[in-house]
Design a protein that fits this description.
It is a single chain. By secondary structure, the chain is α/β, with parallel strands linked by helices. The chain has two domains: 191 residues, Alpha-Beta Complex (Aspartate Aminotransferase, domain 1), CATH 3.90.1150; 273 residues, Aspartate Aminotransferase, domain 2 (3-Layer(aba) Sandwich). Helices cover 37% and strands 18% of the residues. The chain contains 17 helices and 20 strands. The protein has a seven-stranded mixed sheet with strand order 4-12-11-10-7-5-6, with helices on both faces. Strands 13, 14, 15, 19 and 20 form a five-stranded antiparallel sheet that branches. The protein has a four-stranded mixed sheet with strand order 1-2-3-18. Strand 2 and strand 3 form a beta hairpin. The model has no long low-confidence stretch (mean pLDDT 94). The chain binds pyridoxal-5'-phosphate (PLP). Pyridoxal-5'-phosphate (PLP) binds next to helix 6. The site of pyridoxal-5'-phosphate has 14 residues, from helix 6.
Length: 474
């Protein structure tokens, strides 16, 4: 079938309810995530109708350059490309077929592709978002020990400032009081060890990276020494904690945690949902960290950012403990309606092929060097406390020094500007400048689509300079 014929076969959706223009009232029906709707309903919010390259375009025609990779997942931007084409093609061939009792081709092909990349992993379980991929990981870890006749190894050890999603179990392992306090009664009890961020996020931190690693390791080992007979797995983000304050792990931290897990017979469960497939300049982050997970999760960039799909990978050692007769009840009791969605799997396959064809990881590394050079300028800005950067992940920590007395000075995080919290401030100021940026607490982040060309990365960096300069002058 030639291209013209192919497009003729796709039904047009013009003049349907999807394309009709919106009234002011229509816009008030949607409840937005992490949003105070009382404020939202008073604002004139950008309603995005389409994309052009790496720009999102609103209903009134204003263009915004994407500096957040659509919540850290976009790779190739918004214009037509082979991944979108693969989704279209797959929808025409087989729009959905369940993995309950049946197989489908794209889910098998993706498994073979992914398991070649994720060295040491042997099996894949599909779900449809990062939080549920992590839930699956936790269920696998706990049931592994139960099936192995160690039912008391049923609790989890996680890191301070970790983030793994918003479902009940993932809130439990990534507990942040400010966000999750209302749901506390629903959460499970977990052990919690300090992470490098526990020290780095302190404005007065004077410890070196290697001192921070030693302290974290010592405290983690203490917990494992006392409690490993109750701990099924240690859960952590791989390479960096992003939501918990853009904290990039110091050298050897993850490697040594991995060694500790082996020493105390505790599974290492890595979350590469935000850091896998290029964000930190590596395809598979745990390999570059010389760590050996027993379970690892991917989502976000895995499919280019076009389809809700995520995966939990594990080893044969773990998988084999789930084998037995039906009435032994050793099987994994987990499944979603859209598990292994053929169009999502097709998107991932073509996305990963494009990484190879376009040598994306090398492009990310080259752009990362460029960004590093450009960010140096920020060292002279008076509101900038620290710059955190690896690959295409940037966090600019804002703080200011105040004179308490002629001899005494105090540093304070800049989490509010003109009485508005930094996150809303940065969003508004960036949108005004035709760019989409966000912040986390007092950290302005730059998390662009992974294939964004250098001239557009420069626009994002210039905008950050401009906004922080304006903050300096306040
Ligand atoms: C490290 C990490 N894990 C898990 C998740 C949850 O993924 P999702 O939002 O797809 O549920 C996120 C989301 O930002 C994340 O950054």
């Amino acid at each position: 079938m030639d291209k013209k014929e192919y497009y003729r076969k796709i039904p047009k959706i013009n003049n349907t309810s999807i394309t009709k223009s919106l009234s002011f009232l229509d816009k008030k029906y949607v409840w937005h995530p992490y949003t105070q709707m009382q404020n939202w309903n008073k604002q004139d919010n950008a309603i995005i109708t389409h994309g052009e390259g790496f720009y999102l375009v609103s209903e009134n025609g204003k263009k915004y350059l994407d500096g957040i990779a659509n919540m850290w997942c976009s790779v190739w931007g918004y214009s037509s490309n082979p991944v979108i084409e693969a989704i279209r093609r797959q929808f025409q061939e087989l729009p959905h077929s369940t993995l309950f009792g049946l197989g489908n081709k794209p889910s098998i092909l993706l498994a073979t592709k992914l398991l070649k990349l994720a060295k040491g992993m042997n099996k894949i379980f599909y779900s449809d978002n990062g939080s549920t991929a992590m839930e699956v990981a936790l269920k696998i870890a706990v049931q592994y020990w139960k099936n192995k006749q160690f039912p008391k190894k049923n609790r989890l050890l996680s890191l301070e400032n970790g983030y793994h999603g918003d479902t009940i179990a993932t809130m439990s392992i990534g507990y942040v009081d400010r966000y999750f306090n209302p749901y506390k009664s629903l959460l499970i009890r977990t052990y919690r060890a300090p992470a490098p961020s526990s020290f780095e996020n302190d404005l007065y931190n004077v410890l070196t990276d290697s001192e921070i690693v030693d302290i974290c390791l010592e405290k983690t080992e203490n917990i494992l020494q006392k409690n490993s007979k109750h701990i099924a797995g240690l859960v952590m983000e791989s390479g960096a904690q992003i939501a918990g304050g853009v904290s990039i792990y110091p050298k050897n931290y993850q490697k040594r945690i991995s060694e500790l897990c082996k020493k105390y017979d505790v599974l290492l469960i890595l979350d590469e949902i935000a850091t896998g497939f290029g964000r930190l300049g590596n395809m598979i982050e745990y390999l570059s960290q010389s760590s050996k997970p027993d379970i690892v999760c991917y989502g976000k960039a895995l499919n280019g950012g076009y389809f809700p799909i995520a995966v939990t990978l594990t080893t044969d050692e773990i998988y084999n403990k789930f084998l037995g007769e039906y009435d032994e009840n050793k099987q994994l009791f987990h499944g979603h309606t859209f598990t292994g969605h053929p169009a999502g799997c097709a998107a991932c396959i073509v996305n990963l092929e494009m990484y190879e064809k376009r040598n994306l990881i090398q492009q990310i590394r080259d752009n990362s060097k460029h960004i590093k050079k450009r960010l140096k300028v920020l060292e002279d800005y008076k509101s900038v406390h620290k710059i955190r950067h690896k690959g295409l992940l940037v966090g600019v920590e804002l703080a200011r020094e105040y004179k308490m007395s002629p001899v005494k000075r105090k540093k304070q995080s800049l989490s509010f500007i003109d009485g508005v919290d930094l996150s809303n401030y940065i969003m508004k100021e960036s949108l005004k400048r035709g760019v989409l940026l966000r912040s986390l607490g007092n950290i302005v982040t730059l998390i662009p689509p992974l294939a964004m060309p250098r001239n557009q990365l420069d626009i994002l960096i210039d905008t950050i300079f401009d906004i922080i300069k304006a903050i300096d002058e306040k």
